[in-house]
Amino acid sequence: MTEESEPGAGDDPERAGADDVVRRERFSGGPARGFLSSMDDDERIFAADLAVDRAHVVMLAEQGIVDEEAAGTILAAVDDVAAAGFDALPDGEDVHAAIETAVIDRVGDVGGKMHTARSRNDEVATCIRYRLREDVLDAIETTLALREALADAAGRHAETVMPGYTHLQPAQPTTVGHFLLSYEGAVARDTERLFDAYDRVNRSPLGSAAFAGTPFDVDRERTADLLGFEGTVANSMDAVSTRDFLVEVVAALANLAATVSGLAEDLAVFSNKGLVELSDDYSSTSSIMPQKKNPDTLELVRATAGDAAAGLNGLLTTLKGLPRAYNRDLQKATPHAWDAVDAVTEAVEVAAGAAATATWDEAALADAAGEGFSTATGVADLLAMQGVPFRKAHEMVANAAQRAGDASENGADYAALDAAAESVLGESLDAYVDRESVEAALDPEASAAARDSAGGPAPEAVATVRSDAEASVEADADALAAERDALASADERLRTEVSRYD
C-alpha cells in the first residue's frame, strides 16, 4: 500500500522485483527493497485497489481521457487479475504497483494508461478508506450485538438485587438490570463514535493525484459515487496527506475497548465473589489444577484495551510533526488501524457472548446486597425526607454504624439507629419516622426499589431505560443496514458501468 510508494512494512525481498513498473531497473534492486515493500500487508486492500482501478478507468473513459477501447482492454485485464487472486501477483513493492504490472503484462503498454491522472498517493488513500469502511461497519455490528445481549439480560434481572460498589467497597444495593444497562449506555456512545468516524472515513481522495491535483479533466465526484463515498476530501493536498480519519477510528476503538475492559473486569470480579458464573464456553481450566474455572477470555478482552491504546499512541506518534504532503512514514500508520479494528471487534464479540451466557446467582447476590451497611444512605435519605438536614442525617447514620462496629456484617440495626438518633438528634428515631419505614429502608431489595428516579435501579426505571436502549439498538441497526446497502448499491453501479466496456 504505497503512496508515492506507500505500503505497510513488508520484509520479503523476493516480492520487490526488478519488473516493478513504477521503480523500473534503477530503483528496483538493492538491500532496502524488502524494507520498502508492503506486499506482506497489502492483501487486505487487494479488492479495494481493484475497485479503485475500475472506477478510475471508467471515469477516464467517460471524460474522454482514454478511449473506450483502451478502457475495455484495461478493465478486462483487471478482471483477469482479480480472478487470479492476490497470490498470483508478480513481485512488486506494493499491491498497487503489482496490479499495474500484472495488467501491463497481460495487455501491453495500453495497460499503462490505467494510471493516467492518478498517483499512488491518492490511490492508496482511497483504498485505505474503501476497506476501512467495511471494518468500521463490522465493529459497529458487534457493538449492537453486545448492547442487545446486555439489554436482554437486564430484562431478565430487572428485579435481581445485587451489591453496588464504589472503590470496590459495598456502597448501595442496586439490581443486575441496572448494572448491565450502565454498560449498554456506555457501549451505545461507543457506537455513536464509530458512526461519526465512519462519516469522515467515507470521503474520497481519488483524483487528487500526488497532492497538487492534475491537468486532466477528471471527475472526482463520479469516482466517489462509483465507489460509494459520500463526497470527496476537497483539498488535494489534504486528501492525500491526512490520516486523521485513522486517528478518529482508532480512538473510537480504544474507547470501546476500555468500555468492554471494564465489563470484563466486573464480571471477573463478580465471578471471584461467587455472584456470577461464566459459561464454560467463555472460561478455561488450569493445566495442573483441575478444579479451576478461569475467566480467561475476559482477561484477554481486558488486555485488548492496552493493545488498542498502544495502537492509538503509535499512530499519533507516527503522524505528529509530519510535513505536508506525502511522507513514507505514512505506510507505518495504517497497520495500527488494521490491528486495532481486528482486535477490538473480536474482543467485543467475545464480551457479548460472555454477557449473554453468564448465570447470575440470585441468592448469593441477595445475601451480598446488604453487606457493609450498604443501606445506610437509604436511612439518611428517609430522615432527610422528614426534614432532617441531610448532613445531620448522615452524621446520625454514621454514628449508628460506628456503634454497630463488627457486630453485624450488614451494619446497624434499628436499635443502633435509635441510639444514634438520641445522641445526634436529641430525640428517639420514631420522632421523625416510624419503625416500619426504617426497617424497609434497611432491606436491600426495598432500598433498590425505592430508588425510582430516572435511570435508577427501581424495576420501573430499569424498564424505561431498557425500552429506550432497545429502540436505540433498533435505530442503529437500521442505520447500519442503510450504510451497508449504500455500499452494495455502489458496488452494483460500478459493476454495471464496467460491463459497458465488455
Quick recap:
With 502 residues, this protein is mainly alpha-helical. The chain has 19 helices and four strands. The strands form two sheets. The chain has a two-stranded antiparallel ribbon with strand order 1-2. Strands 3-4 form a two-stranded antiparallel ribbon.
Structural class: mainly alpha
What oligomeric assembly is this protein in? single chain
Q: Give a count of the beta strands, DSSP E runs of length 2 or more.
A: 4
Radius of gyration: 31 Å
Share of helix among residues? 55-70%
List SSEs in N-to-C order: HHHHHHEEHHHHEHHEHHHHHHH
What can you tell me about this protein's structure?
The chain has 19 helices and 4 strands. The chain is mainly α. The strands form 2 sheets. It has a two-stranded antiparallel sheet. A two-stranded antiparallel sheet has the order 3-4. β1 and β2 form a beta hairpin. α6 packs antiparallel against α19. The longest helix has 41 residues. The chain is elongated and about 100 Å long. The N terminus is likely disordered.
